[in-house]
Each structure stands twice: as structure tokens, then as C-alpha cells.
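C-alpha cells please, single chain.
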Amino acid sequence: MASPVVICSQTAARPPAARATVQRRRTPRRRGVGVAVIGLGYWGPNLVRNFHEVIGDDLHACCDREESRANAIRARYPRLRATYDVGEILADNQIDAVAIATPVATHYPLAKAALEAGKSVLIEKPMTADVAQAEELVDLAHRKGLVLMVDHVFVYSPPVRKIKELLEAGELGRLLYIDSVRINLGLFQRDVNVVWDLAPHDLSIVDYLIGRTPKSVAAFGSVHTGSGHEDVAYLNLDFGDGLIASFHVNWLSPVKIRYTMLGGSKKGLVYNDLDPVETIKVYDSGISVRQDDLEDRRNILVDYRTGDVWSPRLEPAEPLRAVVRHFVECVAGDKTPLTDGQAGLRVVRVLDAAQRSIKAQGGRITL
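Here you go.
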């Protein structure tokens, strides 16, 4: 169990099996975990709703610099305390943890202040605006013995968990490539470009599925609005051993597409997040290579195999509900989250490398 929860807001992957569980502080706990949600703009109300469903009356308050946002939450949840002062939240001893859903530039100062105040932190993606900030937060959380978790929400979705299960079972064979498209018309962000806005979703998915860091990154991007922020971009990641991954992110597309393809030595898989019925399709299709004379490449013969297509059944579940529940359990049980600060740091490192590559006209950046 945990302690009461306060929600406050202002505007502004490695699986557990892959690493040892970190034993954190062992201080006496009250019944329930006190949580504060900082940020009631686009994502914050979703956090409020899910925390309310998971911990009920342990959710005590909300906070936002814009009075109308705080009042809107208070009207829906009359028992929540509303405040416009983050300092009030950080000084409250009844609050054990905060969830931060504010603009990216505010993530680092808010998370640092929360950790220094002894609060565990759930932070929206991307974790920070640069690598040094992310490294500092990871180190600070470790020294304080607190939970630092990143809201890589798709990692907690039933389709992505099923894909991980299929990969670990060897259904696809050796993974050869990943192609991902995440495009739509808008929403344009004022503080970050399309890479930092959309790519963290796909990078966190791949980090969770593959379980290792890419060797290098190359990226191209273009600005079409005069804002200075790229609104169309292409990323290429080289993981070594023949595995490459490509990502297309775009705010200018006339259609919305959320599509990922994984190609394996045995089978292929397509993940269409917008298909509510057959979100995952597994294709028993591929090639086999025959070569009579290993010294003569002209004798290479490629055989094509086309088999069945099947769609695994997925249990319906809201990923953010799983994120919130996991966060509360980790704070209450002193456990390391699936998407911990290290996972957030890995994603920020790739984003940083992609941004440097864009500025270098697609030059490949080694990680």
C-alpha cells in the first residue's frame, strides 16, 4: 500500500529480467502513496483520471499555474485540493511522489526539485531536453534512493507486450529490421521539434523490444513553418549484427498512421496501432538462401516462402492505467520501474544524436 496522493500541475528499456532489482530506501510508510500530478494541460488530466481510478481517495489535490485548468479538474474531482504553487506540493510531507506532465523545458528543474525534496518522480517523455540533464536526474534519484520513472506509455500497451513475448519465444527468428511510421497533421509543439515530440514513442518501444543501444544514428529533417523546429524527419539506427531500424515522424501528413513492421529470419510482424481488431498481424513469410558454390555469388538462389497470417488476441487495457499502477507499486515496494531513468536516458541520448545528425546534414553519429 502507499500514501495519499496530491495532484499539481503547471503549464509550461530494459525489462526487469535484464537487470538486478535495486533496493531503495527502507523508511516506514503510511498506508497509501501520496502522489502529485504537475501539469494539467494535454496529458495531465489523463494522469489525474488514472491515479484517481487506481488509488481513489489517496489522490488529494491538483495544481496548475492556469487557474481555469485547476478549476476544471476540481469541478470533476471535488475532493481534490487545488493549488497554483509547486513549492506548496514539494513542501507537503504527505506527498511521496509527483507525476510531471509539463513542457519539456520544465522537466529537468521540476524533477530535480522534486527529487531533492525527497519525492519519487514519474515524468512525461522525453525525460529531459538534453543528455546532461537526464544523467544528473538518474544520478540524483540513485543517491536519494528514490524512484525515477519515465512515462513511455506504449511499453505498457498490450500490443507491444505481446510483440515482446513473441520475440522472446523466437517466433520471428533473428530480428533483421524495423520500419516505423508515426505521422499525422499536427499537433505542432512550440518548444520541441517533431523528433523530440513523436520519436520517443517509437524509440522507447524499440529500446524495450531489442534491449540494447544502437551503435550509431543518422537523421534528416526539414522545417516548413519558419519556426526553426523540424516538422518532418527520418531517423536510421544501426544496432549491429545486421539489424537496422528506420523511423518516419511527420506533423504535415494528411493522414494519421501508426505503423511498425518487424522483419525476422522466420516471420514478419505488422503492428498497426490504429486497427482496433487486428492490431498485430504475424506473417509466416520470408526467404531462404541456397548457394551451391560458396565461392561463387552468382550461384546464390533465393527461395520465397508465403504461409499463413494470424492475429493474436489481445486483452483490452489502457496503457496509462498500467503506467500509473506500476509507478505506485514501485514507490510502495522500493522497486525499479520497467521504464526507469536509465531507459529515459537511453532515449534522450538517441534523440540528441539524431538532432546533431540533422544539423550535420545527415552525418552519422556514433553512440
